[in-house]
Design brief:
With 193 residues, the chain is mostly helical. The chain is built from 9 helices and 2 strands. The chain is 51% helix and 3% strand. Strand 1 and strand 2 form a beta hairpin.
């Protein structure tokens, strides 16, 4: 696990701290098919809205402890006491809409899991079940904020009852779980053509 330091590391996003660099090098754009981890990543993307990803990564372990290791069954059952506990927890993002949204999203996640067998099967259907082909992009400015797939995913997740799942959040989620690979051309993590 990276230690807290001011050391900056160059990745295709720019100069970042060790937590961001480790995430870039080991998780970002790596296909993920574990339902619990998919739920965690989607929730963290929602909590990130309006904040830096570094802020979320620095609190990720605390989020996991506070939200019962992102167990959607437990989170869907949260009541007023759990919400109050989370709102008093300085280790997470204490935004009431986002905290309540995570509870609402857990219930919707469980419904989607039941309807489709796994959330993995459902969510990966937006890209045909496999990562989209890599497009060599020269700069971070060439990477879209949303795509037709993320727009469709957002619409479907909202219809399923989720919140904090706009097209930009859904695209960031798609990047996170490897549905798309937006490592820039020249990045050591970019696919070799």
């Amino acid at each position: 696990m990276p230690t807290a330091t001011t050391e900056r590391v160059q990745v295709c996003w720019g100069l970042v701290g060790p937590l961001d660099a480790a995430y870039h090098d080991t998780e970002w754009s790596v296909p993920c098919h574990d339902d619990r981890e998919l739920f965690e990543r989607l929730m963290l993307e929602g909590f990130q809205a309006g904040l830096s990803w570094s802020t979320i990564l620095a609190r990720r372990e605390h989020f996991s402890r506070a939200f019962d290791a992102w167990d959607p069954t437990r989170i869907a059952a949260y009541g007023d006491a759990d919400i109050a506990r989370l709102m008093a927890d300085p280790g997470i993002i204490r935004n009431r809409l986002k905290v309540n949204g995570a509870v609402r999203n857990a219930a919707a996640f469980l419904r989607l899991q039941q309807e489709h067998g796994t959330f993995d099967r459902y969510i990966w259907s937006f890209v045909g079940g496999a990562p989209k082909p890599w497009l060599p992009r020269a700069s971070i400015g060439d990477v879209p904020a949303s795509t037709p797939e993320s727009i469709a995913m957002s619409k479907a997740l909202k219809q399923a009852g989720m919140t904090f799942v706009g097209p930009t959040i859904c695209y960031a989620f798609m990047q996170s779980v490897g549905m798309v690979n937006d490592h820039l051309a020249g990045c050591p993590r970019a696919p070799r053509s």
